[in-house]
Amino acid sequence: MIKRILASLVALAALASAAATAQAEWMPGGPIKMLIGFRAGGGADTQARLIAEELEERHGWKIIPEQMTGKGGAVLAAALKEEPADGTAIGIIVTESLGYNMVAAKNAGYQQSDFTALTTTAGFQMGIVALTSKGWNTFDELVEAARAGEQIRFGAMSPKLADLAYLLGKAHGIEFNIVMTQGGKGVMDGLNAGDLDIGWGAGIQNNAVLAGDMINLASGLSTRLMVSPDAPTINELGLPFSADGYFIFVSPDGITAEAREALSSAIASIVSDGDTEAGGFIEKAFGGSVVIAGEELDALLAAEEAAAAALLEKASR
Amino acid sequence: MDVWSHVAAGVLAVIQGPAMFHVGAIPVSVTIVMILAGFLAGIAVGATPGLAGPMAMAVSLPILISVFGYEQASLLPVLGFLIGVMKGATVGGAVPAILFNTPGTPDALLTTYDGYPMTRNGQSGKALRIAHFSSVSGDTLSDILLFLCAPFLAVLVESFLDLPEKTALILLSMAFIAAVVGKSVMKGLLAAGFGMLVAFVGTGEEFYPRLSAGLPELAQGIPVVSAILGMLILGEVIKGLEDLMRERSATGRISQVAETGDNRLALREKLRLLPFIGNSAAIGAIVGILPGVGSTLAATLGYASGRRKQARRGGAEFGTGAPEGVASTEAANSAVSGANLIPVLSLGIPGNTAAVFLILAMETIGGFNPGPSVFRIPSEGMNEEMVIAFGIFTAMVIANLLNWTIGGAFMRWMGIMIRIPKQILLPSVLLVTMVAIYAQETSFSALVFALGFGVLGYFFRKLHISVLPFVIAFILAGTLERTARQAFSATGGDPFFLFSSPLAAILMIVAVALVILFGRRRMESQH
């Protein structure tokens, strides 16, 4: 009897100490697989890999980055959904993957409730860009040129941005020839080669804008752009939508609150620390970190989904 | 400040850059060390069956950036390494093609046409020397073109080519390769169509992964390395194993090719090859400036034009081990790489996969934004970007010098591999290729796909269908689809966009004419 009590006491103590360490620092039950929804070597991919390195250094976790690109994040989402929900699998995509892209695909194979959102890392400085050599100084001048009969080619790297471009033209009584490109780089190439007249840039245009080679005619965000405070937002131009978007880390749904908290605060503290390589890179490449996590992030995603449905509805009308 | 002070500053940025170590009292710049390291790595990668330059660049880029950081000072060492890899792999790539008939890239397939027969005639050493000599000559010529014309040429080309013309250009190059390579135009076209069909699995703009039959393995599309290496290398390995089996059951033993006779490349022979090299290098350089078509078209054009030249002159027929065949192909595909940097530097648009990684490095590190502003001379002070551009040119010159010297010695040394008995070599190539595929794709299904394409490549060889149209169509299909879609929407939904501009219409007519012309000529030669 005494033996049994002793044994259970020992077990209890072990349990308590285990719980205590877990509270002190959550540890994953093995290496963490980090799925990256962006092509290898690009800015988004570099960001993810630098974060992975810093996570290993700070917390001693083992991170295995793996590329999983395609279908605007849908391929990654469908795969991540099937991974174990214990903090050993996370993925980095854009909020659009859990918003417009998910709603627009008739059979995406996943929904927001399949995931637990961890944290955003950075936002897009989304603007409507043209070469300065085109001679347009404002969005109004562009509209005038289009009304005068000039065909305007508008480069967009995602269906959502194509819809926004279409509605923006409609709001001004003009029709753009909307050209889909591969990534923001495709828009920049098209502009430089003269294949496109204007296009969306998610921040990739910043250097060219600062150098005076390109100009932001409008901001796609709900706020004005950091580099071009004079350019009006598409809201101000009469469009009730915005192209706000963020890089976001997610894990499969069902991970413990502890794991969620540990992972999201670990990532958040790295990206918002400008002294880390990852933080410094984000500052340079994306104009600084934007950390949204917890309930605020859940609300943001829900709003994104609702807005996507409204946008699709309006664009298809 | 004039151009020359920018050139001088660019050269000094490479040579006098931060020192890595000192030899005696002389500091050795880190950029030069990185170029050398990249060059050696590139040769090793190129010479390994199943590995190629772009793959090595993809692997090394993140490592380089984490070592050097993303400060502007790291730009030249990182680019130097990548340029070294690019140049080294181009030369090294001819080695497995010539010695083992297992090309690692589509362009090297054309090198096998005459390179491998030369090996079987006991002339492997000579073939390697010719490949090295032509490749480096073509490369050097192309670099000179780049240095002289970079600022304005790409801008000029782009102002002529709109999206419809680009679409037509890709169609033309696919039609050309399908028509010229192989024994039958129809088989070539069928192979190209099949290659496109396979490339369309799981790709495209729709959110639904098309043609994937609901299989998650197909939803991401067929891995590129699996399809290419499966067709090019595994198909040949399977065929080679079958040949060995037949030979052993027929003669009771496996023969071994050895070098026989004089394998040196005399000055007289070099001079005789020069017209072929010059011709091909010019073709390669012109193709290199055009966006999106790349070195395989250059190799094919160079080979075809060399074949005509040879027929006129009455030398050994191409395909039977003609030294001119190796020279024509290698000079053409190497001449692409320098000219390919013209659109990269002046517009920021990559012409091939290797250029993609150079641009990625520039973007990730920052401080250099390829575009028209690179070559603008400011009224006062220095244009830092122009200095870097000339630094990049300097790095290319240094890589070329290494290529002329160390590259040649390496080629001679590689000839020893021919002594490996075939029954050991073929399984080794199989193993190395499978490892290379797994290292690049890290998925088991990629290996299954590769084996599947290996079997397909085997049947292509049995049925005398060239695998090149299939491979090149597979590679270009994505670009073709994207450009065609873009051209369609850019012209406001004009279904006849391919014929709406004179230039596009001419390109399309040439494509059709090529197919008819070559088709008829083959028919005649068969009767």
Q: What is this structure's SSE topology?
A:
The complex is a heterodimer of chains A (317) and B (527).
Chain A: H1 2-24, E1 32-36, H2 43-59, E2 63-67, H3 74-81, E3 89-94, H4 100-104, E4 115-123, E5 127-131, H5 139-147, E6 153-156, H6 159-171, E7 177-180, H7 183-193, E8 198-201, H8 206-211, E9 214-219, E10 246-252, H9 257-271, H10 277-286, H11 294-316
Parallel strand pairs in A: 1-2, 1-3, 6-7, 6-8
Antiparallel strand pairs in A: 3-10, 4-10, 5-8, 5-9
Chain B: H1 3-15, E1 19-23, E2 26-29, H2 30-47, H3 53-68, H4 75-92, H5 94-100, H6 106-120, H7 124-160, H8 163-180, H9 185-199, H10 216-219, H11 224-251, H12 267-289, H13 295-313, H14 323-347, H15 353-365, H16 384-414, H17 422-441, H18 444-462, H19 467-490, H20 502-526
Antiparallel strand pairs in B: 1-2
Structure summarized in a few sentences:
Chain A has 317 residues and is an alpha/beta fold.
Task: Name a few traits of the molecule.
heterodimer; A: 317 residues; D-Maltodextrin-Binding Protein, domain 2; 10 strands; B: mainly alpha; two-stranded antiparallel sheet; 74% helix; 2% strand
Fraction in helix of chain B: over 70%
* Terminus-to-terminus distance of chain B: 68 Å
Strand runs of chain B, count: 2
Q: What is the 3D form of chain A?
A: globular
Q: Total strand count of chain A, please?
A: 10
Count of distinct structural domains of chain A: 2
Number of helices of chain B: 20
Please tell me how large the radius of gyration of chain A is: 23 Å
Structural class of chain B: mainly alpha
Question: How would you state the average pLDDT of chain B, rounded?
Answer: 87
Describe this structure in words.
The complex is a heterodimer of chains A (317) and B (527). Chain A starts with a helix and ends with a helix. Chain A is an alpha/beta fold. In chain A, β1 (32-36), α2 and β2 (63-67) form a beta-alpha-beta unit. Chain A has a five-stranded mixed β-sheet, with helices on both faces. In chain A, strands 7-6-8-5-9 form a five-stranded mixed β-sheet, sandwiched between helices. In chain A, 53% of the residues are buried. Chain A has helices spanning 2-24, 43-59, 74-81, 100-104, 139-147, 159-171, 183-193, 206-211, 257-271, 277-286, 294-316, and strands at 32-36, 63-67, 89-94, 115-123, 127-131, 153-156, 177-180, 198-201, 214-219, 246-252. Chain A has two domains: 29-124 and 245-316, D-Maltodextrin-Binding Protein, domain 2 (3-Layer(aba) Sandwich); 127-219, Periplasmic binding protein-like II (D-Maltodextrin-Binding Protein, domain 2, 3-Layer(aba) Sandwich). Helix content of chain A is 44%, strand content 17%. Chain B is mainly α. Chain B has one domain. Helix content of chain B is 74%, strand content 2%. Chain B is built from 20 helices and two strands. In chain B, strands 1-2 form a two-stranded antiparallel ribbon. In chain B, a hairpin with a 2-residue loop joins β1 (19-23) and β2 (26-29). Chain B is globular, with a radius of gyration of 23 Å. Chain B starts with a helix and ends with a helix. The mean pLDDT of chain B is 87. At the A-B interface, α2, α3, β7, α7 and α8 of A face α3, α15 and α19 of B.
